[in-house]
Structures are given as C-alpha cells and as structure tokens.
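Researcher: Can you fold this with magnesium ion in place?
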Amino acid sequence: MPTSDQPADKSQQLKILIPEVRLQQRVQEIAHEINHDFQGKEIVCICILKGSFIFFSDLIRHIDLPMSCEFLGVSSYGNKMVSSGEVKITLDINEPLEGKHVIVVEDIIDSGLTLSYIMNSLRARKPATLKSCALLFKPDSLKIDIEADYLGFKIGNEFVVGYGTDYAGKYRGLPYVGYLEHGH
Ligand code: IMP
Ligand code: MG
C-alpha cells in the first residue's frame, strides 16, 4: 500500500521543493501583513477547497483579527496535470459578503483561470474589500493577467504536491511542498 509520502509509481521520485520550516515562516509573514493591513477591521477568510485547506488552517491561526471563515469548493482539474480552463463551483458560500472585508485563500495560481473566475464571481457579491492570497504562483504558466495581493512563493512550471495540494487526490498530507521527478 503506498502511503502519502511514497509515490504510487516507483519510476517517480518525490523531491522537496519547499521544506516545512520555510512554509511555516512564510505563512507567519503573510499573516502579519494581513494583521497590519486590516488592523481595526473584521475580515472574512475564504478557503478555496480542496487545495488550500492546510495553508488556510495554518494562516488563520496567525491572524489576530476578528474573523469568520468560509469555504468555497471549486474544481478545475479532474485528474489531469493541465488546466481544463473549466471552473465548477462544487460548494458555495451561503453567507452574504456584501460590505465585508474578504480575503480569498488559494493554493496555487497556475494558468490563473481559477482565481480569476473566483474573484469575478465574488466581486459580484459586492464585498467592501476583496483581496487574494495564494501560497504558490507559477508566473511562466499564466494565461491571464492576474496576481495575488498576498503571495507565498513564486515557483517554476513543475507540478507540485503536498501541503494540501494533490496529484489525483494524493499527497495532500505532506508537511512540505514537493514535486514528482521521473526516474530513468
Ligand atoms: P489554474 O486555474 O490553472 O490557475 O489552476 C489553479 C488550480 O489548479 C489550483 O488551485 C490547484 O488546485 C491546481 N494546480 C495548479 N497547479 C498545480 C500543481 O502543480 N499541483 C497541484 N495542483 C495544481
Ligand atoms: Mg485549487
């Protein structure tokens, strides 16, 4: 039985891209930026499921503001490694966002299509502020002009897993961000 830190396919090696300590440091820095920027305000943090659930739960524990948490399920990939460009809402938010200070927390900006779709659909709900926060950004893959207001790390085009992100549903539990390297 493969476990979450052992590749299912023996021809693939799992390598560490961003170790746990760097993730934890950067998450704290982002939370401090948010604490500073939203001082005196109440915020709504939106966790984009499924990929950002670990980043989100680490981040909110360093946020020192009155806050509520919401969960938005989107699906864009199926089991493929490339974006389909199609974004489906699989779980919507029932709370009204009108007049609220909203921060959308996403795992990865790859083509940018998913975050762009999410931001546009949330903007229509008339929040007072709408900011985005992404752990990872792949600038070379971008197909649309978008960037995160709060960003963890810029990375290359490699397909990453761990710290909430998956390949075909696996590896989400890894405490680091890794990538699969094909063996020869
Ligand atoms: P985009 O619409 O192409 O920007 O894709 C964004 C979504 O695809 C992210 O929210 C991730 O869930 C997923 N994704 C993009 N790149 C990767 C990756 O390298 N590993 C795992 N998931 C990824
Ligand atoms: Mg995602």
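Model: Folded with magnesium ion in place. The chain has a mean pLDDT of 91.
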